[in-house]
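FW: tagging you since you asked about this chain on Friday. Here's the raw sequence from the shared folder, copied in full. Didn't touch anything.
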Amino acid sequence: MTKKTVRVRFAPSPTGPLHVGGVRTALFNYLFARKNSGKFILRIEDTDSKRKVDGAEDYILKSLSWCGIDIDEGPYRQSERKSLYQKYISLLIKRGNAYFAFDSEEELKALRSESEKRGETFVYNWQNRGFLKNSLSMTAAEVEKSLQKKKSFVVRFKTPKNKIIKTHDIIRGSTSIDSNLLDDKILIKADGTPTYHFANVVDDKEMKITHVIRGEEWLPSLALHKMLYDAFKWDAPSFAHLPLILNPNGKGKLSKRNGEKNGFPVFPLKWFGVENIIGFEDIGILPDALVNYLATLGWTPKEGEEILKIDELKSLFSLEKVVSGGAKFDFEKLKWYNQKYIQKTSNQKLLKHLVSLSQAASRVDGENLEEAIGLVKQRANTVMDLWRLSEYFFFAPNNYESKSVKRISKPGLSKILVKIADLAASKTTSKESFVLEMKNWAEKNGISPGQIMMTIRVVVVGNLSGVDLQEIITFLGLESVEERARNAIQKIL
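HL: got it, structure written out here
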């Protein structure tokens, strides 16, 4: 028997920007496909025209590309496949697995209201469908008359009575559900478009999908989807429902609102819509870092190893090792991953990324900025940090941090500042020997080396941060040091 080629799909709806949870779902599908020499298919589920947002599909494509998730087939669009759904719904109706329901929304609302008054919940199923306005309770002539008059209708699935629906999930194991507890779900809406439940089963069959890997929010629908496969007499694919990505506090699904509350994005790229929303790219998160981190949310790639590029993730991925419990989104952990990737990335690539994000950075000399990036990259958590950490190389401080000034404000400060300026202006010293000469001078004048070093740092940086002092002096040159020292004399003393 020939082994089937693994085929998986990512099927987002174009209702807005792609959430990081969707990126994780796409990633796990992609990794599974690559691990098993299979195909990764993109399908746009756009049958709900009212919720469709302009630009969303393009955003999805750009986000996947930015993350390095390559598409083998697609994008397919459900809006272009309506004739296919009509063909298959006709088959289900003919077989008696689906039926026309002519009940108006007002009639159903009234029935729900009556049930609530009795302390019950109205469910459209085997218990009452024989008394409602549908092709199961009406004569053939009545049905035909209603169709000819173009009376509004939906098509519902005829859920079998007294049947135990057995399902299996790779991550969560096997379950059994009593069909008597289920309702007759709508398969075709009143406007003729298919519901998610119907369209995705048909599409998965037509696209020869072998594994459906999706979020756990679809787990309650698994029984219905299994019944649809059985009704068509099709073999169902294998299912795996991924755990939710939770808010940092572990309570609830990660949302845009909670991201904003905690100070981080939840989308990969900037979204230009009714409101412009920043993405991870905008704050300087590298795509490899985001992918590496997302891979760990619900799955442990390799014990003892955290930094794994996408090719390594492909070779290691296993659905059997995905956990069922939700995974908290830890932005600090993501920044840790990003720091590691920044350190591994060439200064040239970081320069290109930085100037695309920062107008200020784009206005300084690129060659010098690349050198500065090399000096500060070990300290940077994001690409934007590279500019924050290196800005003093290009612009003298106009203001001095009060805490830092307080640390150096001791007797003799005036003398030290003047010496820094004079020595920097001296023709007998060099930028390579400047720090050592200042230390020697301090020793002769009974001043601690620490006091000297802190003062020089405040002069050239504006505070007590920054890389190795000698590296700063070498980069700036003595002319710049003198200028900054003269300025400090005027503003600090």
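FW: The mean pLDDT is 95.
HL: agreed, and The radius of gyration is 32 Å.
FW: great, closing this out.
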